[in-house]
Amino acid sequence: MSEDTIAGTLDALAGLLPEHLLNPKAAIVCGSGLSTLASSLRDVVEVPYSALQGFGKSTVPGHKSVLAFGLLGPGAGVPVVAMLGRFHAYEGHPLSTVVYPIRVFAKLGVQNIIITNAAGALNPNLPVGTIVAIHDHLAIPNMAGALNPLFGPLRSPDHVRFLPLSDAYSPRLRRLLFRAAHAEQLPEAALAEGTYAWVSGPTYETPAEGRFLRAAGADVVGMSTVPEVLAAREEGMDVLVLSLVTNAVVIPETYRSIKAEVEAELAGRPVVQPPPAVVSHEEVLAVGKQKAEVMKSLVARVLSMLD
Ligand SMILES: O=P(O)(O)O[C@H]1O[C@H](CO)[C@@H](O)[C@H]1O
Ligand SMILES: Nc1nc2[nH]cnc2c(=O)[nH]1
């Protein structure tokens, strides 16, 4: 996306927003079913993506296509921008579009970003409903498919060509998060730490893929977030990522043997068939809806603790 496009977006925002909302201190990216994370904002001005050059349209159910600017917290409040609806590569968006809002946030002066997502659990110790503070990632499309939003000419002499990622997930923000969880009296098991595997989607994992990702060290898996993290880090922002576990990825220790079942049927022995275990986006959205309030309080508390 060219500098002219970004300049056009910034001009449009300057025309639509009051002065006190134009330089947000922090940004929130709302994952699938999590758009209500922004409902704690006051003085909200919503800007539809369609009003902004360079923005795509989010086509996934559970993702609106709106930027919400507002104030958070008591007194004068902290200006915040929330992305209600993100872009995924599987929708057909180039990665430059997927990360375009992050580029715009950087130009608006955003220093801290909280990125949320819905994810499948690979780690059996993470039940549905757990919130996972991401401390690392495994980006299969980067490693194997040359899908990286930082490909291309260096954006400016101020950007880093070879971006280190060993510090991608801000310890400072994660520390605030666990303090926020304590202040919100969240049960200890409700907030865990783990590694996010980014896959391109839109297919969910086969059992063998789930087993592979787990063996490679991932705790949760999803189809978003990592491109946004890479762009945010390239822009020098501090990043906090929260994954909400919406389903368990099926990783059977042994496969159901259709061969054995047929042999049993033919021999007249009883056969117990296991229920089918398939995930759906409806299930993902339903868990998002159930947990949105807890996520919202946590995110709001972290933002209120920023200095
Ligand atoms: O990562 P978010 O956008 O929260 O959405 C997750 O949920 C969708 C699949 O149900 C995928 O888009 C996956 O990435
Ligand atoms: N890839 C992937 N993305 C998800 N988003 C929510 N659940 C899942 C899942 O099980 N797998």
Automatic annotation (TrEMBL):
Residue positions binding a purine D-ribonucleoside: E205, N247
Binding sites annotated in the UniProt record for phosphate: S32, H63, R86, F87, H88, A118, S224
Pathway annotation from the record: Purine metabolism; purine nucleoside salvage
Database matches in InterPro entries: Nucleoside_phosphorylase_d, Nucleoside_phosphorylase_sf, Purine_phosphorylase
Listed GO biological process terms: nucleoside metabolic process
EC number: 2.4.2.1
Domain Nucleoside phosphorylase per the UniProt entry, residue ranges: 26-266
Alphabetized UniProt keyword annotations: Glycosyltransferase, Transferase
Pfam families the record matches: PNP_UDP_1
Highest taxon of the lineage: Eukaryota
MF terms (GO), sorted A to Z: purine-nucleoside phosphorylase activity
Enzyme class: transferase
Gene Ontology CC terms: cytoplasm
Known role: The purine nucleoside phosphorylases catalyze the phosphorolytic breakdown of the N-glycosidic bond in the beta-(deoxy)ribonucleoside molecules, with the formation of the corresponding free purine bases and pentose-1-phosphate.
Family statement drawn from the similarity comment of this UniProt entry: Belongs to the PNP/MTAP phosphorylase family.
Record protein name field: Purine nucleoside phosphorylase
Organism classification: Eukaryota, Fungi, Dikarya, Basidiomycota, Agaricomycotina
